[in-house]
Amino acid sequence: MPFWKKKCRTSGMLKAEVSRMFKKVTLYTNKLKEMRGFYEYHLGFRVTEKDETGFTLAVGESELEFRESDRQAFYHYAINIPGNQFSLAKSWAEERVTLNRESGEDEIYYRGFDADAFYFEDPAGNIVEFIGRRRVDRLGDFTMESLLNISEINITTPFMEEVGSLLQASGIQIWGSNGIDPKSLNFLGQGDAFILLLPPKRIWYFSKAKGEVHPLMIELTDSRQIEVSEEGRVTVHTAVNPIHDRLEELDFSGVLSWMEEGETQVLAKGDANRADELPNSVDTRFGIASGSKIFTAVAICRLVEEGKLAFDDRLPELLPDLFPASDVTVHQLLTHTSGIPDYFSEEEMDDYGALWREIPMYRMEQPADFIPLFRDKQMQFTPGERFHYNNAGYIVLGLIAEKVTGQPFTSVIQKQVFDPAGMNRSGYFRLDELPEHTAQGYLDVAGGWRTNQYSIPVRGGADGGAFTTAEDMEKFWSSLLAYELLSADMTDRLLTPHIPTKNGAHGYGIRITEEGYSISGKDPGVRFYSIVRKSDHSILTMLANTECNLPAVIAVIKGETDSGD
Questions:
Q1: What is the per-residue pLDDT across 389-439, written as a single tens digit (0 to 9) for each?
Q2: What is the mean pLDDT of residues 103-115?
Q3: DSSP per-residue string spanning 114-130
Q4: Rounded to 5 degrees, what are φ and ψ at 98?
Q5: Cα–Cα distances in angstroms (integers) from residue 70 to residues 31, 37, 348, in the given order
Q6: DSSP 8-state secondary structure symbol assigned to residue 113
Q7: Largest Cα–Cα distance of the chain, in whole Å?
Q8: CA-based Rg of the chain, rounded to a whole angstrom?
């Protein structure tokens, strides 16, 4: 299938779909900060990638990237939207921007394309066009999820015939004419996707601005890349994006973040909500399963510093009604050396979701709800004898935190961890009350997929199940290592290798290796990994809302970040 005939998949479609040519368009600006604020916060676009020198927006099934430049630049680009939502989109835009006018009108109908359009400008002076395709309908109100794809992008060049011939030789044919007109606007493409080729100084429609030559890059859906130089010369070659390509091969859905030397890069892939085709963005919240045991450990350490308990306190002293004869200490619970029976042993079962086929997951809202699942079982071994990963041990830590504070466990974590670390997008959310910009977890099943809503407890707790973002994880590690959550002595105790394991050692709620300090989580529809390196305190975080190949994804990112060391 020719690249320009690839169809845009969009939920709620009632009539024909639109053709798609552009995978990603990269533009340059000397107003990067203003531009990100305008698109992300003022207009509400989802950011799918960001670093110190640029950011990328989701535009339906296309992406629009802005990279920092020291020169002022402006372009024209158009976005396809459903024709039946044109008036809604125009009203939405009028609440946020001033629409451009031509001959007193702020919209136009293009008969040759059977489409309506309106225009506005962003802070860099880019001429933005929303073009409603009348043959395409979509249910519902206009939102950012109504955007179908990038429809048009301009190439302004003094080398009109040379560039036109190159593009046509590459299979991008001129539309509605027998040849390139070097003095006018030329459309190259088909259907609903075009490159607009024009000479400098031509006045843009619905604008007084004259066309200028500026560099840009266009990645087509067939992975070819069109690169325009500062002089307006054009080359066509195969796009080289090894990290993106490998993640697509792995069908990765989630967010990756790595911070080195104070600079952070974040990349989002896949959908947060498959039913409505809402893409993941850099600030999407994800469940992190057992990765949140570290929050429980930090809270317990803070309570020790406050004098509300001690590491050598025993369960009969703290929870006499539940464990009147146990010899287990707080330290042993933190290090997985308590020997208490577990409600889910990862050595005996490999499907956490199977547990909730017999037990109503919707009743599991607080630590006390888990007690009947393990309290009356036999001890696994003498306390302190050896390491054995234990979820129930952290449930008991949650009960202890509630007992000594008089507060629900989730409130304890909010006060002791999230608030002091500035993790304002993290929390223990009910699966049936997820806030906006939170990813659903997905399981692959025969014939398709389903969410993980009935495969994990309805609310996370002391042994796992918090939701967080890549940025909040960076805040957590930074606060922890800066001794903002715990004193230096207590932080050292948390990060001490208390007990050896097969792959390193365990501290309090954390794995310790020669490389660094790491946490991870694995639930149905959830994969999570985060590590801070000992050598330079660089941070790598992976959050996924599918059961992806976690080691393979980590290897892709580590290979990329290590390549420059």
A1: 999 999 999 999 999 999 999 999 999 999 999 999 999 999 999 999 999
A2: 95
A3: TEEEEEEE-TT--EEEE
A4: -95, 125
A5: 9, 19, 59
A6: G
A7: 91
A8: 27
Q: Is residue 162 a contact partner of residue 180, using CB atoms and an 8 Å limit?
A: no
The CA distance from 336 to 319, in Å, is 18
Mean pLDDT of all residues in the chain?
Answer: 92
**How far is it, in rounded angstroms, from Cα 335 to Cα 333?**
6
What interhelical angle do 242-249 and 550-562 show, nearest 10?
180
User: What does DSSP say about strands 286-287 and 278-279: parallel, antiparallel, or unpaired?
Assistant: unpaired
Cα 360 from chain centroid (whole Å): 30
DSSP 424-493: TT-B---GGGPPSSBPPPEEEETTEEEESTTTS-SS-BTTB--EE-HHHHHHHHHHHHTTSSS-HHHHHH
pLDDT for 557 equals 82
Q: Which two tokens stand for residue 192?
A: 């609903």
Cα-Cα end-to-end distance for the chain? 42
Beta strand pairing status for 19-20 and 22-29? unpaired
The residues, ordered by sequence, that sit 6+ positions from 502 with a Cβ below 8 Å of its Cβ are none
Sheet strands (E) in 5-45: 6-7, 19-20, 22-29
- pLDDT at position 349 is 59
Beta bridge partners of 292: none
pLDDT recorded at residue 564: 39
For residue 61 the two structure tokens come to 């099934």
Helices 391-405 and 293-305, interaxial angle, to 10°? 40
Q: Residue holding tokens 């933005």?
A: 128
8 A C-beta contact, residue 428 and residue 420: no
Distance separating alpha carbons of residues 250 and 248, to the nearest angstrom: 5
Residue 353: the pLDDT is 66
Q: What's the confidence (pLDDT) of residue 560?
A: 57
pTM of the model: 0.86
Q: How far is CA 263 from CA 43, 87, 222, 254, 476, in A?
A: 26, 42, 32, 20, 16
> CA-CA distance, 368 to 403, in Å (whole number)?
11
Helices (H) and strands (E) in the chain, counts: 14, 30
Q: Which residues contact 410 (CB under 8 A, 6 or more apart)?
A: 427, 428, 459, 461
Residue range 176-204, pLDDT digits in tens: 767 899 999 999 998 999 999 999 999 99
Q: Which amino acid is at 335?
A: T
Q: pLDDT grade, residue 245 (50/70/90)? A: confident
Q: In this predicted structure, what is the pLDDT of residue 106? A: 97
Which token pair is 91? 């009203």
Residues in the chain: 565
- List alpha helices for 99-194, DSSP H: 160-169
CA distance 397 to 485: 18
